[in-house]
Amino acid sequence: MSRALIIIGSLVLLYAIAAFAVDFLPVETFQSSSDDIYLKVVPTSENSFDWVQFRLPALFVGAILVVVGKFIGGKKCDI
Fold it and tell me: At what angle do helices 2-21 and 55-71 cross, to 10 degrees?
């Protein structure tokens, strides 16, 4: 169970880090221009579901799952 929590937490952390990193990617990487234009991820409309809204909660949930998987799951109970 602890290994599953660590794997799921790591995947959620990877998503959150990738979602934050997208904001720093340049839009026109291979074209030379005087102004640097960067890709900014923003929600498109209020009625559509947007994964970008969940990057900060995903960061927290992923970190909590990894911590719980590391410290809670390692105990064995002999009956």
Answer: 150
Q: Is the Cβ–Cβ distance between 27 and 38 less than 8 Å?
A: yes
- Structural domain of 24: 2-71
Taking only the tens place, the pLDDT of each residue in 13-50 is 999 998 888 777 766 555 555 555 665 656 556 656 66
pLDDT at 71 over 80: yes
pTM value surpassing 0.90: no
User: Is 64 part of any domain?
Assistant: yes
User: How many Cβ atoms are within 10 Å of 35's Cβ, its own excluded?
Assistant: 5
With respect to residue 28, please indicate whether it lies within any of the assigned structural domains.
Answer: yes
Does residue 78 lie within any of the structural domains?
no
Number of domains into which the chain is organized: 1
CA dist 71 and 64 (Å) reads 11
Q: How many CB atoms lie within 10 A of CB 16?
A: 20
